[in-house]
Amino acid sequence: MPFVGKSLDKQFGRFLRERRGDVSYAVFARRLGISASTLYRLETGEQSVTLGKLEDVLKRLKSGVRDVFPE
Question: Domains in the chain: how many in total?
Fold first, then answer.
């Protein structure tokens, strides 16, 4: 089961990287209400996202779960 969790973390990380584009970690993290270091760890899959944090980030990005996990 840990493999599935890591796969989802990586997919969420890719989503964040794509949404961030050329914006700096500091600016994008501020927009999401998290620290730049947390954003980096989420993008690289080093930190798992909690359901609460996922909901909060998606709300701030005006996105839905299907935008991150379309399948």
Answer: 1
pTM: 0.86
Q: Is position 71 within any domain?
A: no
What digits encode the pLDDT tens for the residues 4-38? 567 889 999 999 999 999 999 999 999 999 999 99
**Domain containing residue 36: CATH number:** 1.10.260.40
Is the residue at 20 inside a domain?
Answer: yes
Taking CB atoms within 8 Å and a gap of at least 24, the contacts of 8-14 are: 8/69, 9/42, 9/45, 9/47, 9/48, 9/49, 10/45, 11/68, 11/69, 12/42, 12/49, 12/54, 12/68, 13/42, 13/43, 13/44, 13/45
